[in-house]
Amino acid sequence: MTKLENEKGIVVSQITVILIAAYIAAQMLADIASLKIGVVAGFSVDMGTFIYPITFTLRDVVHKVLGKKNTQVLILSAGVINLLMAGYLMWVASVPGDADWGLTAEFSAILAPVWRIVLASIAAEVVSEMLDTEIYAWFVQKITRDHQWARVLTSNSISVPVDNLIFAVGAFGGILPWHVVWEIFFFNLAVKYLITLLSLPLIYLVPDRH
Q1: Which residue has the higher pLDDT, 11 or 84?
Q2: How far apart are CA 142 and CA 7, in angstroms?
Q3: Residue 7: pLDDT band by 50, 70, 90 thresholds?
Q4: Could you give the angle at the alpha carbon of 47 between the alpha carbons of 33 and 77, nearest 5°?
């Protein structure tokens, strides 16, 4: 069986495989959930917001083990997977449904992707996660290898607003009133920062080998 190694030739542990799977799963779930704009505490919010932020910390954990180049491959792979998922759901929604089963219209209404939202989401993910990777690597190499929580918080504090801006404007700009777009932006930003703080301990799941 092929072994995954980082730039330093360190064999990937089982927990890293789990983390990679969790990263891709969280990306996919967030993209599906983002098809719904909910109202939480009186604010408009895309429902992928509550799971997506954890991908930034998961990405940082993978970076610790696999290194920068392999992490970039993971990010691009997740983007392609999400694009294929959206295409497959669109095809499934177009197939005539069995009359005895029903729910065909409901499936199409819920899961047939709104392509503008899908493309905005994937663009936001790829750009922000690539940026996060660069900032994380810079922090480790130029600032300090100590205080692992600080490298995660620093990279996320820059990449999360970028992600939010690309998604909110790309998905809803010119469609929803601008005050609603900015409401989505700011509420999503607050939720993502909260989840970032809650997920910080994940960075200590694997040894720091950089």
Answers
A1: 84
A2: 18
A3: low
A4: 45
